[in-house]
Amino acid sequence: MLEANNISYAHRKFTILEGIDLSVNPGELLVIVGPNGAGKSTLLSVLANEMGKTADPVIFKKKTFKEWDDKELARNKAKFSQSNNSDIPLSVADVVMMGRYPYFSATPSRYDHDAVLTAMNETDVAALKDRDYNSLSGGEKQRVHLARVLAQLDNDVQNKLVFLDEPLNNLDVLHQHRILHTIKNFTDRGNTAVMVLHDLNLAAQFADRVMLLKKGKIVAHDAPEKVFTREIISRVYDFPCTICANPVNQNPLIIFGI
Amino acid sequence: MRNKLFIYLLLSFLLLIFLAVWSLYSGVFVFEKHSFLEIFNGIIANDGSIDPSERFVLMDLRLPRIVMGILIGSALAVSGTCLQGMFRNPLATPDLLGITAGASLLAAITIVLGSYIKPYIPEMLHYSLLSIMAFLGALLTMVLVYRLSNQGGRTNIVMMLLSGVAITAIGFAAMGLLIFFSKDEELRDLTFWNLGSLAGATWAKCGILAVVIGVSFAMLLNKGKALNAMMLGENDAQHLGIPVERIKKQIIVLTALMVGACVAFAGTISFMGLIVPYILRLIFRSKYNIILPLAAVWGSILMLTADTVSRTIAPPSEISVGVLTAFMGAPIFMIILIRSRNQM
Q: Does residue A73 sit at the B interface (CB-CB below 8 Å)?
């Protein structure tokens, strides 16, 4: 599905990523975690083809990004970015409709409107659809962009791929879980998601596999219960922690500070 | 939305045609025959029913001037709208970015120094030489301003406006030097540039403008969706399948071409690229897919109105149209500044 070998990235002689190999299978939800400055967002940008050239190209569905047609690629992969431009003088529905741009040339079809509405319901922003985007709160803006990404991948293509850079920032508990369930549903249908998260417990609960980064290198890349062990986590985060089984669902439960 | 856009465009076109007819009849010279059809029938039939002086005023003074006003207004408004989309800011216009200044600087150099080479080239090329030089000036400035103000896919607004100020200052200084060195006739040409006027309209200039604008519009007017997506940031637009780099190059080259041609033939008519998108944005927000095609028509409407007023308001002389547009544009510039105060 998505394969990358020996990813390295440096910014002005300052190494951010070093020798990262990764392969993600269809239907997999991969969560990238790590302390600040580990290179999580940079890795996601490189994988999503935002950094231009890399020494060894990233392979998506057996093709490099360069070999893909722009429109076709947009129907197969999408990315949710962390830095949202604050000034977009449009209505919420107009912003979500941008997700359908790869599908129509001048006038959106009925199906495009439906996809926008479905996506807005999914992230709970349908009630805001006529509001001015600029007047929304940070969490609401975040959900609008998530709806846009969902609308972009609403099609019949098999094995789609979505990148999400800290999609849960600014969201309340209800919406955090709603969004994660939406993403889980998406991967259950044979699609792939690569996501950067800060909350280790949410990662433990939802991820199929977890990649733990520190200072641009992979520390562990495995199933959540193998990555989230007391030794690894307290060493990487440099902070004491206890890990036990979650009494409800038996996932690892990480408690810091003890 | 498509149908609505079509209706808006149609209504705007009708208004433009009405204005063109009104403009044709306005002016110091009054036609003997007062029906539009009568005059044109007379001219087409060429049966001597139309006085040669009337014919001259109509065919060689007013009509080319109206056509040039329509073309230049449209070109400046579309350039402004495209630049605002690319820079993601409503203050990005050819004049505020110094692109007009860059174009008129090279045009002025061509006028003053060009007199040495003019005798050796055919007349049709005089206009072309001027437009080519103005285009080069516009293109160089555009690339410079873009490089200075674009930081990792985001626009630094302060850098954008200040580099415009710097380039305009250089242009101003060089213009002063050129005025000092120029002869009488060149001096008149230079003054004409600084103020901006459509008085020098001829059919040859209209022809060149029509070709430049035709090519540019064919490639730019359908970029509304792409400009909308670029509000998200360049990376996110790329994820939506928009070929961002290619579109930016097209906008840079084609707006430089249009601004260059406009400056070469009509001088610096300021603020046109600011006023038209501002008014359209008040009604349609920033939906570039709607305001970009509408800007093409409303630029013409505004320019034609301003020019007709400028040549009829103080008969028998006329005031420069650049003065009028500056009077309209400067307050709007202030309003936008006040509104975007928080983002600076």
A: yes
